[in-house]
Design a protein that fits this description.
Helix content: 25-40%
Order of helices and strands: HHHHHEHHHEEEHHHH
Number of domains: 2
Radius of gyration: 25 Å
Length: 351
Amino acid sequence: MAYVATRGGERAIEQAERLFRADMGKITAERVNEIKSAMPYLIDRVMGEASLYDEDLAALALAQTGGDLYEAVLVLRAWRTTQPRLQVAAPVAQDDLFTHRRISAAFKDIPGGQVLGPTLDYSHRILATDVLNGTPFTPAAVEPSSKPAPAYQPSVAAWQAENDLVDLPKLDETHPDDIPDVTREPLLFPSKRAHTLQSLARSDTGGALALGYAAMRGYGQAHPTVNELRLAEAEVMVKHPNGTSFSAGRVKVSQAEVVSKKGEKLELGFSATLGWNEVKCISAATLDLNSKGAPKGSATEEEFYLYHTEGVESSGFCIHFKLPHYVTFQSSLDAMRDAKSKKSIHPEPAE
């Protein structure tokens, strides 16, 4: 695609960025910390879509870009590429997750019980307008539970497999160092399973929701039921140079399993991501569930949804239309003028 050189407008381009920065104002560590503490779920979304778990850097990216999610994710991904890879963490099993919230829409009673955890699912959506008049909104204190739920919970799908309700995928015995990495290898089709899950993990939340919602409304092959939704913390276990394993800390993770009846057993769809993001996990798991046998070009075909939920690439392609297209557009106008000129010289005969 041809572009006109913009060297003559270098000063204008520089001033345009300065104008944007002036609107943002001074960025301080205090401002970044305020964003981090005030909007944890937004921070989680940026970290998940950027494939980088660092709350400070995610908050900085939001402050620096004025809250433009696509720009924030792009900045954070770009920074990520400059950093060395020091270790590959050990795989994490569901049973090893420190669980804050775990629910199932498929069963009233599940092993370990339903754990509502932090959620607005059952609240009234009422805007606290008194805050604008100077009255702080102070949430009610959480009452201690007389019987707190266990921190570690079993997998619902594993329990179903024991009862011959679902077939679990075979355990992937690939060494962690050899797992395909979509950030270092091109996404080719048919996609490797690791690439599919990684792409869904860092997919754009809105894009995954739009296509997942289409599948839910009947444009897919299977209607999902949430088998298990879990918000948890995963222990990051790495090896010390001396050979011993140790925990480098915990990261927040979300995961969703959705199921649909197919034949004599349930079909399983899965998704997980960094941070707490229920909407994306349910939507992405729905796409995973529907991808098997999806028609070519449909919203649930793997190639379609993996490409079109890639937020940085898709937003970049959309935004690039703002850039100069003078040459290509003028050539189109010249072709139109030429066609009109020829038509006036050689008019079509009247019927």
